[in-house]
Amino acid sequence: MNLEPVSIMRSIKTIRDVVGWGLCVGCGACQYFCGKDSIALENIETIGIRPIFKKAQDVNYSECLKFCPGYSIGATRNLQHNEHVIFHPLIGPALEIWQGCASDKDIRYNASSGGAVSALAAYCLEKENMEFVLHVGMDKYTPWYNKTVQSKSRTDLLARAGSRYAPSSPCEALSLIEASARPCVFIGKPCDVAAVSSLRKYRSKLDANLGLVLTFFCAGPPCTAGTLSLLKELNIEKKATNEIRYRGKGWPGHFQVSFNNGTEHKKLTYEESWGKLTDHHRSFRCNLCPDGLGELADISCGDAWHLYDKQNNDFGQSLVLARSERGSEILHRAMENGYLQLEPSKLADVIKAQPMTGRRAAIFGRLLAMKTLLMPVPQFIGFPLSKIWLKNPIKLKIKTYLGTLRRLLTRGLWHQKPLNPA
Fold this sequence. Notes:
This protein is α/β, with parallel strands linked by helices. It has helices spanning 15-20, 29-34, 59-63, 105-110, 116-126, 154-159, 174-178, 190-199, 204-209, 224-233, 270-278, 325-336, 347-353, 363-372, 385-390, 394-410; strands at residues 39-44, 48-53, 72-74, 86-88, 92-94, 96-102, 133-138, 146-151, 184-188, 210-216, 241-245, 254-259, 264-269, 299-303, 318-322, 340-344, 379-381. The chain has an eight-stranded mixed beta sheet, with helices on both faces.
């Protein structure tokens, strides 16, 4: 059975079907494209951010399939003729691989993994004359939620540095970049970046104003219920919280809560909190993601796990992958201007540092299980999923296939569940 690429997806006609089959990633791109009069975004605590359709029928609901990352992600990049391309089937293409950190000690300390993303964003504002950075930060009124924000200074970036392990939809505000007088920086999850990569083909002004697209290595964000369960375990009332940090302030940092009375409550290490956040609180669609390392961004960054062993008493280091020629050029200028301290790294280091690279090897089997249950599957075009799958040991193939079947059946994912049928 050939699943790569899938040319026709059964039962997927509009983004309503993407949502109904549990394939939505909550990026917010559909609201940007269709407008708030057609689509609202709602953070469903046990699921994630999902579109709420305001019209019974809308031609744009079908048009959204052109860029919806829940429906399709294409890995094709115009690097075929670049003799310097580095490629590995588990990682994708890169022009350069580095390891290091932000030169600014405050950025490095407050960020999650060496501060490379924040440092690059600061460089673009201060030296590349970009107007703002579109990304996500904590919602100050509901600290367990994220909010799409514009950062226009180093102070803004520093206040919002650090991972946010909760649903986010930064593509909802792409109109701000489109209307900008100067190029801007976009920071989002790899699936958000996939949406941006497709949308820029249809919106010339957006394309022109995307000065730099940054992403971070992502294993899938937990839904809000993950954070709320941690607060409950710590006997913390939501109304008493002033700030929630998932990590940072040291590496890898703690899950910590600041209260309205100014006191700070530290309780869980990163290792403790990450497991509790993700246990039954992550979308099945994230287990199908072929691009957790962000190969469609200009630059992708992530923790140098297993390469950098100091825990909580140091500031961490990042792996930095230049994925495009623009990304490579800006990365070098950021180093030359003293924003980053990096040393060359290699593919083997990325694989050693990031265990989730192995997830790509399991995706074909998971898609096969979905097809067995007559479910529509996402289109993953250009990713070598079947070739990687064939190299897996037979026991692992059976375990992946049967385990996915069991999960789909026990969770009731094998049939469509429209959130708001009209």
